[in-house]
Amino acid sequence: MLEFSHAKRIDWQISDAEVDYPTAVATMESRVAAIHAGRADELVWLIEHPPLYTAGTSAKTEDLLTPDRFPVYQTGRGGQYTYHGPGQRVVYVMLDLSRRGADIRRYIRQLEEWLIRTLAHFGVDGGRREGRVGIWVDRGGGREDKIAAIGVRVRHWVTYHGIALNVDPDLSHFDGIVPCGIRGHGVTSLWALGSTPTMAEVDIALRTEFDTVFGAEERQ
Fold first, then answer.
1. Which end of the chain lies in a sparser environment, N or C, as judged by fewer CB atoms within 10 Å?
2. For 41-58, what is each residue's pLDDT tens digit?
3. Which of 186, 177, 149 has the alpha carbon at shortest distance from 62?
4. Whole-angstrom distance between the N-terminal and C-terminal Cα of the chain?
5. CA-to-CA distance for 118 and 139, rounded, in angstroms?
6. Averaged confidence pLDDT in the chain
């Protein structure tokens, strides 16, 4: 596991190897407990998973279209079915909201803004859509595709789970689910849109824009 030099009271870590989902969840839960107890700094953890589906607390059975394709994990985060796999940057964010205003809605807006600003580094105009979770891009002709997902959980005002940005995943892997329960729209990635950054370049943009969006809280 590599580490960025971290901002004050926030560790930044990148895992080079793919991390299986149960290990990721156990790691997050341990860190969340330590943050709440004052025994660990906040953490932003950047990883990739092997191909898998996760079912959030609102997942509907009929939205899992091919249940035998990849492992399926029940998870405590909000939302419905989501795909994770190679080429997708998953960022698990463990922040103490008790010292950041204790406002979950504001935190979700910050995650959205973080993704939008990161996408802008690569010439992609991502945005929010009323009634649809995640970040979307306009493909023209009335078509809109999802490029990033958001799913969070909060325990004792400490956040975990987080965001997933499609850099260059196999988009056909999303065919096994109705992503986030939203029908009638597609899924895209930076590479599918013609922008071809490396994962390291995406990580640098994420780091830069995290400071932009969350920097005021970091300096408190």
1. C
2. 999 999 999 999 998 888
3. 177
4. 28
5. 19
6. 90
Instruction: Write out the H or E segment, with its range, that includes residue 206.
Output: helix 199-218
Catalytic pick among 46, 180, 182, 187:
180
Q: Cβ contacts of residue 188 below 8 Å, gap of 6+?
A: 137, 139, 145, 146, 147, 166, 171
Residue 213 predicted with pLDDT over 60 = yes
Place of tokens 């025994």: 39
Q: Which of 6, 99, 70 is nearest to 44 (CA)?
A: 6
Distance CA 68, CA 177 (A): 11
Tokens of 178: 């109705």
Catalytic-residue membership of 180: yes
Query: Vertex 35, ends 30 and 41: CA angle to 5°?
Result: 110
Query: Is the Cβ–Cβ distance between 189 and 87 less than 8 Å?
Result: yes
Q: Note whether 213 and 110 are within 8 A (CB).
A: yes
pTM: 0.91
Question: What pLDDT, on a 0 to 100 scale, did the predictor assign at position 73?
Answer: 94
**Which one, of 101, 88, 60, lies nearest residue 173 by Cα?**
88
**Secondary-structure breakdown of the chain: helix, strand, coil percentages, each rounded to the nearest 5:** 30, 30, 35
Weakest-pLDDT range from 86-95, 134-143, 151-160: 134-143
DSSP 8-state class, residue 196? -
CB 77 within 8 Å of CB 21: no
Closest to 199 in 3D by CA, of 162, 169, 163, 160: 169
Strands (E), 88-142: 88-94, 127-129, 132-140
